[in-house]
Design goal:
Oligomer: heterodimer
Number of helices of chain B: 11
Shape of chain A: globular
Helix content of chain A: over 70%
Radius of gyration of chain B: 25 Å
Order of helices and strands of chain B: HEEHHHHHHHHHH
Shape of chain B: globular
Helix content of chain B: 55-70%
Number of strands of chain B: 2
Distance between the termini of chain A: 46 Å
Strand content of chain B: under 5%
Number of helices of chain A: 12
Distance between the termini of chain B: 35 Å
Number of strands of chain A: 0
Strand order of the largest sheet of chain B: 1-2
Strand content of chain A: under 5%
Largest sheet of chain A: none
Order of helices and strands of chain A: HHHHHHHHHHHH
């Protein structure tokens, strides 16, 4: 009897956890299908399926363009971080040299920077390069937080690969570049997928730089576009539109999480527990 | 002295290593190092956003200045200290709550039961959602007139009138903490779960055979064993919480009741165009976080030499 009781208690706890984690998302989902006065009554189940909010999100502002901006910026950030992260990780994990520990420490500490601490310096740099209100300003500034993390995780991963792999390649006269591309790259896929996903999510979600370095509607990324959706007055926010936009940008992330949860979890824990 | 072929090979290898490192180091120097140096430099000037090149050196005036019997500057600014206090309060309360909730969730996920992978995926959702989106979702749920939270509290009779969660001075910080806890507990839970899964199973076997109560096992065995990992996770989250910007900016905008150091610094920098003063505030925040990072590295006893 006591056993069954604790079983029931355990599953209640599990249900509570799932409800806590998912309910806000679910509630935004059902709100996104409500329009007019239906918005102002609380329901726990969707009553009707109206796509008006989704239509007006794309109709009233360049939201499709914002999504493309976010996709482009995030993809570029992932590609650059993985490329420079991989070459740096090779040097940091496979070669013994003086100052290596200090170097890793410095790189790690960059990822702890409060973003606002580089804001004015970065603003000056971006204006000097003529990149203000240009998506490239976001690509380069996002490297501040994606690159140190990528280097760190790839280094810890590469460190664990056996020495013999490389030695055989050196005997065959392969150049360091060949070793990275032909020997390590094929073995690094799991770590690359993990760090790539994390970098993608971080870039997709970034707000402060995107808010500060872009100005016009067509250059905005999705988080800024959502934050700036406004109604006729400050007190009349179009909640239906905001929820529809939120669902649109979150759904791909939820799908990514469901497909790659193992890779994401191992990337997260490699970044923090090992570090 | 003639070097042996082996050490020649070694030094060539080291040269190659630097070649491989150089692009990454140049990028970080350009996007992180140089801007940081400039920010610290701007902190000693009266720079304005629209005309940065006209900046004049003003010494420590942005930090503290005495003029006609009055103190000026950041260190004498009650709004700055209010932001510091808000940030510290926010960081301590939300990280404590996250740790406790994260522990509970991690313990549940560490038990083996049907559908565990699904629960873990569900828990990951708040983590993956953009902070802006979670701020908006909760902003809607906490809406004073039409929000579901007020609706529920009213219907079970806990409150008699709707609460203005994000607008009232007493509640705004609680609302921010509530949303942050929802958003970042998964991260905590996953880190703790990773630590739990690395624990040796034999001491649990022994405890079970001896009939030790599970609660006692948790406090006597589990907690001491995961303490190092827990500490690292807590400090990791604390550092993150100290620089909080987007959640507060979107959920409660520039309200004085919740303004964090980052929000304060950006308001000075961008909204008031006062780059000198805002940079000084950013610099202070940077040193606070740097201090905590040092603490983290010492406590975490991380090994950086590459050998394990």
């Amino acid at each position: 009897m006591k056993r069954i009781g604790s079983q029931v208690g355990f599953y209640l706890l599990v249900a509570l956890i799932i409800g806590y984690a998912v309910f806000p998302f679910y509630y935004a989902f059902i709100t996104s299908f409500k329009t007019g006065s239906a918005l102002f009554s609380v329901n726990f189940f969707p009553l009707h399926w109206q796509w008006d909010n989704y239509r007006s999100v794309f109709g009233e502002q360049p939201f499709a363009r914002n999504i493309l901006n976010s996709l482009g910026v995030s993809a570029a950030v992932v590609a650059l971080s993985l490329f420079f992260g991989l070459t740096a990780a090779f040097a940091l994990s496979r070669v013994q040299f003086r100052g290596r520990g200090l170097l890793l420490l410095t790189i790690l500490s960059v990822s702890m920077f409060p973003q606002v601490a580089v804001l004015s310096g970065l603003f000056e740099l971006i204006r000097a390069l003529g990149l203000y209100n240009n998506l490239f300003s976001l690509v380069i500034s996002y490297l501040i937080f994606t690159l140190p993390f990528t280097v760190w995780v790839l280094t810890t991963f590469m460190r664990d690969l056996p020495k013999e792999l490389e030695e055989a390649a050196i005997m065959d006269g392969a150049s360091p570049w060949d070793i990275v591309i032909k020997v390590f790259l094929p073995l690094m896929w799991p770590a690359l997928v993990s760090t790539g996903l994390l970098a993608f999510i971080a870039a997709w979600n970034e707000f402060l730089f995107a808010l500060t370095f872009t100005l016009t509607d067509t250059q905005r990324t999705v988080p800024v576009a959502i934050a700036l959706i406004s109604g006729a007055s400050q007190f009349e926010l179009p909640w239906g539109n905001i929820m529809a936009a939120s669902i649109i940008v979150t759904l791909p992330l939820v799908v990514l999480v469901l497909i790659f949860q193992h890779r994401i979890v191992s990337g997260l824990t490699a970044g923090a527990v090992k570090g | 002295m003639v070097k042996s072929p082996r050490s020649r090979l070694g030094s060539r290898r080291v040269r190659t290593a630097w070649l491989f490192l150089l692009p990454m180091l140049l990028i970080l120097a350009l996007v992180a190092g140089w801007p940081l140096v400039r920010t610290i430099g701007f902190g000693f000037t009266d720079a304005q956003l629209m005309n940065l090149s006209a900046a004049r050196f003003v010494g420590f005036e942005n930090y503290l200045d005495y003029y006609q019997g009055e103190w000026y500057g950041l260190l004498a600014d009650p709004d700055w200290w209010n932001a510091v206090w808000n940030t510290v309060r926010f960081a301590l309360i939300s990280v404590s709550l996250e740790t406790v909730l994260g522990l509970i969730i991690a313990l549940v996920l560490n038990a083996s039961f049907k559908g565990r992978a699904w629960v873990r995926a569900a828990v990951l959702i708040p983590w993956a959602i953009p902070t802006i989106v979670s701020a908006k979702m909760w902003g809607w749920m906490l809406h004073d007139q039409f929000g579901i939270v007020n609706h529920l509290l009213l219907s079970i009779g806990l409150i008699s009138a709707p609460l203005a969660w994000t607008a009232s001075p007493d509640l705004a910080m609680s609302a921010v903490i509530m949303v942050d806890v929802w958003k970042t507990t998964p991260f905590m839970a996953l880190l703790i779960l990773a630590a739990l899964q690395m624990l040796p199973t034999d001491c649990y076997e022994a405890a079970r055979v001896d009939g030790v109560h599970p609660v006692k096992v948790f406090f006597k065995v589990t907690l001491p064993l995961i303490k190092p990992a827990l500490l690292v996770a807590v400090i990791f989250r604390l550092l993150d919480a100290l620089r909080i910007f987007d959640l507060i900016y979107v959920l409660t905008s520039n309200s004085r009741d919740t303004m964090s150091m980052s929000v304060y610094a950006r308001q000075q920098l961008v909204d008031f165009q006062d780059v000198g003063y805002g940079s000084a505030a950013s610099t202070l925040l940077f040193f606070i976080v740097a201090l905590c990072t040092l603490l983290y590295l010492m406590l975490g006893r991380v090994r950086f030499d590459g050998e394990r």
